[in-house]
Amino acid sequence: MTKDSQANSGRQPSSGQRSEPNRSARQRRSFGLATLGLALCFAIPLHDLIRFAATSEFHSYILLIPIISAYLVWLKKGSYPISSPPASNAAAGFLVAGTVVLIAYWLVLRPRLKLMEDDYLAVMMISFLLFFLGVCGLFLGREMLRAISFPLGLLIFMVPIPTFAMPPIDAFLQQGSAAVAQGFFSLSDTTFLRDGLVFQLPGITIQVAAECSGIQSSMVLLITGLLASYLFLRRPWNRALLTLFMIPLGLLRNGFRVFTIGELCVHIGPQMIDSPIHHKGGPIFFALSLIPLFILLVVLQKSEHAGNKSKLKAGEDSTPTSPK
Known about the structure:
Layout lengths: L2 H9 L3 H27 L1 H13 L9 H11 L12 H25 L4 H23 L2 H6 L1 H6 L11 H22 L5 E3 L2 E4 L2 E4 L7 H18 L3 H9 L1 H22 L8 H4 L2 H37 L6
Antiparallel strand pairs: 1-2, 2-3
């Protein structure tokens, strides 16, 4: 063998290296076909979900969830493993769980209970997502499943909140918002009397109704916090802290809204209860709530950078130097 042929043979990839991209392409092609088949099987529930979300004032955010998840997967497309073995056990567990949910719906829930559309879609979407996770485990593999765990987990927001869960959530947000509003009124010079969810103010009485609980803004704020923690933070504790901060922040935002409307009614006139700031001012208060979110995010980012610098400095100090 000549030197040129030896050099050329040294540059040729091995059969194992050549098979990795081919295997990855086959896996993803199979994944696409399986996902398409799954979507066809759930075509009616998916169509009902799109129609429901498009006409629902509260659940309209559902339409954005698949788009956001797909974008997060695309954002890190260059860092995924080429191929990985199937997560057979996890996939089997997800597929079995999805089947159990469907059987429970058709044999138990549907004949015995009169389900609202929210409840029907919640059951169907839970089953669909379990089947989809099973498909991901089978065709994308264990490492890939781990790499895209957050975008997959975000898909849980495609499940509408069941009707039985809405009253306790509304009650929690109403009581929390009223408590925060009471704190703001106490800090002001306004005379008030609180009786549960009712505030008696000079010249007007206002009530924190279920429609004023801010549940939609709180849900969007929670999703925003999750996305910010995933995109800009690395430490799990910092991500958890930022996400949990969305709960008191939502109460603070809505309580401040109640306080603002009450102050306007006292100082300008009772007609402010029907003003645009009451009926259409939600986006304004939501934008204001992003300020403390941004501040906490910056603080947590700086703490991570400071920790990385200290670790790097400690590593440099512990590195032995060779004698001159």
